[in-house]
């Protein structure tokens, strides 16, 4: 009896500690191992707020057993807390019907509303029930849609066995924060559920000590595989590849390969081809799975082998790999080292992530943001990131203001110039942005190189000339009607034409120069372009006005 009391005391202390530190998953593990009567005794001793927090971590199959040991009053209270709001929770059928009738956006909105209402009311079990119905990718989307302060509570309601799959679909910053808040045992268990390439991504996002702890929990073979993948840059073929390829030699027959495949528990995902290697594991070619399945068992693999399928070098950039997958509609490609030894393979699911990341990088980079930025990151963190680009923009704005200040006397004497001045800069900025976007896309897609740059430059200058003449005449006519001054009309027409020609030139050259300097054009191109078009536009307009009107 004494031993039992000591055990109860220890369990109660552990749960109280987990409750105080808000370690919900640890609390859930402890409760799962306790007898229902002990849990009931614990609930009797807690404050109402603590009682609800603990109750939310009790698994549903255990609820009725615990309730049977509680006093009638407490049983009624907890039953009411558990049942409140259940009539508003969408079932799996309702969610599916809403998705069909109103679109996926309506279903997503409903799910997010359920999570937010559950967090506000403290009904965390509703979140757990909803998450059990959803794909890990959708759970990740909901977590990223939550404010940072509420995300940890929702994350704790993800089933233990699915945490690794959800982590795989989270953006880098969110994944890093949630993983850092997890108990080490939970993180290790989640890591064991992940594919090697996803595990590599997770380890790269974690502090060094925590990453090493995860590595040490793996068996020797798994650790060696992960460490070999960690040795390659994250944005290279080596950082993308999986090590689950099926490699065979050319001198075997189809029947032998089929018997080998039947011995496997399952084929690796996206297995559309098998790789042919020699005795030194050097890549020789491929044989497509569909040909193996339809060939006669006595057919030699050598007869089905394709030797012209090019592998990917282990240090190839991920952007080049994405372009090849897109151009050739590939599902997988082999990865080899400089000696031609087969190291692994890259599959289309990883390339889809690369394509998405490249698109987000271009879009977010235009605003000076990182594609992995957490939408609901703390205010101070987000402010610090954006402050850098606001500061850079301020410097460029002062440069444009300095150019205007050079013509202060001109503006004082001809007020109409101040009214029309923004038009010149705006027209140049829009025209330049169009060219800049086109060039950055061409660079990202590998469609623009030293051979055809001059062709594109001449084309963009021609476009700038034609559009410049057209809109110069339109703006000049409007200025003459507005101010009744032919000279001002001619000056703004000339300034717009000059600025559009300069915008075309800058839109082509700025990304090329930035890339040569090792600076990402998507990140810095728009800031530099805006500065150029503002300075040239103001200088041309006010300079011509000073020469011709004063």
Automatic annotation (TrEMBL):
Q: Which PROSITE patterns match?
A: CBS
Ranges where the record places region Disordered: 80-106
Q: What is the topology of this protein in the membrane according to its UniProt annotation? A: Multi-pass membrane protein
Where, per UniProt, does this protein localize? Cell membrane; Membrane
Main location (coarse class): membrane
Reported function: Acts as a magnesium transporter.
Q: Member of which family?
A: Belongs to the SLC41A transporter family.
Protein name in UniProt: Magnesium transporter MgtE
Q: What is the lineage of its organism?
A: Bacteria, Pseudomonadati, Pseudomonadota, Gammaproteobacteria, Chromatiales
């Amino acid at each position: 009896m004494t031993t039992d009391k000591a055990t109860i005391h220890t369990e109660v202390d552990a749960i109280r500690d987990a409750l105080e530190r808000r370690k919900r998953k640890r609390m859930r593990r402890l409760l799962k191992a306790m007898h229902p009567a002990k849990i009931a005794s614990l609930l009797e001793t807690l404050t109402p707020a603590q009682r609800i927090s603990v109750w939310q971590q009790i698994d549903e199959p255990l609820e009725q057993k615990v309730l049977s040991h509680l006093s009638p009053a407490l049983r009624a209270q907890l039953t009411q807390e558990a049942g409140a709001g259940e009539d508003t929770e969408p079932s799996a059928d309702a969610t599916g019907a809403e998705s069909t009738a109103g679109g996926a956006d309506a279903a997503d909105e409903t799910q997010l509303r359920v999570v937010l209402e559950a967090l506000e009311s403290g009904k965390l079990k509703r979140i757990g029930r909803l998450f059990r119905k959803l794909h890990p990718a959708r759970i990740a989307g909901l977590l990223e849609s939550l404010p940072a302060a509420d995300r940890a509570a929702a994350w704790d309601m993800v089933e233990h066995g699915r945490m690794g799959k959800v982590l795989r679909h989270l953006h880098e910053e969110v994944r890093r924060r949630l993983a850092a808040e997890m108990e080490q045992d939970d993180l290790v268990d989640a890591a064991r559920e992940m594919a090697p390439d996803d595990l590599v991504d997770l380890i790269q996002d974690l502090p060094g000590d925590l990453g090493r702890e995860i590595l040490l929990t793996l068996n020797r073979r798994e650790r060696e595989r992960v460490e070999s993948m960690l040795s390659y840059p994250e944005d290279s073929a080596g950082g993308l590849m999986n090590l689950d390829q099926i490699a065979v030699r050319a001198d075997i027959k189809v029947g032998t390969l089929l018997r080998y495949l039947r011995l496997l528990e399952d084929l690796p995902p996206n297995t559309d081809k098998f790789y042919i290697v020699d005795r030194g594991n050097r890549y020789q070619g491929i044989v497509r799975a569909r040909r193996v399945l339809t060939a006669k068992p006595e057919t030699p693999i050598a007869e089905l082998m394709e030797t012209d399928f090019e592998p990917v070098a282990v240090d190839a950039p991920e952007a080049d790999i994405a372009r090849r997958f897109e151009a050739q509609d590939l599902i997988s490609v082999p990865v080899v080292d400089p000696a031609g030894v087969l190291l692994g393979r890259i599959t289309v699911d990883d390339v889809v992530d690369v394509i998405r990341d490249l698109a987000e990088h271009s879009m977010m980079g235009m605003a000076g943001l990182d594609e992995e930025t957490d939408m609901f990151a703390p205010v101070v963190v987000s402010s610090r990131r954006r402050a850098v680009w606001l500061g850079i923009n301020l410097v460029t704005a002062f440069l444009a203001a300095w150019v205007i200040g050079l013509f202060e006397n001109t503006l004082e004497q001809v007020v109409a110039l101040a009214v029309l001045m923004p038009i010149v800069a705006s027209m140049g900025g829009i025209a330049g942005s169009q060219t800049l976007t086109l060039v950055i896309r061409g660079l990202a897609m590998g469609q623009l190189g030293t051979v055809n740059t001059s062709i594109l430059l001449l084309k963009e200058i021609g476009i700038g000339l034609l559009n410049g003449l057209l809109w110069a005449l339109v703006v000049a006519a409007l200025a003459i009607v507005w101010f009744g001054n032919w000279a001002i009309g001619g000056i703004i027409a000339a300034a717009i034409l000059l600025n559009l020609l300069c915008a075309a030139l800058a839109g082509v050259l700025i990304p090329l120069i930035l890339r040569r300097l090792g600076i990402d054009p998507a990140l810095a191109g728009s800031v530099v372009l805006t500065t150029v078009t503002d300075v040239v536009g103001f200088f041309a307009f006010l300079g011509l006005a000073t020469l011709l009107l004063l």
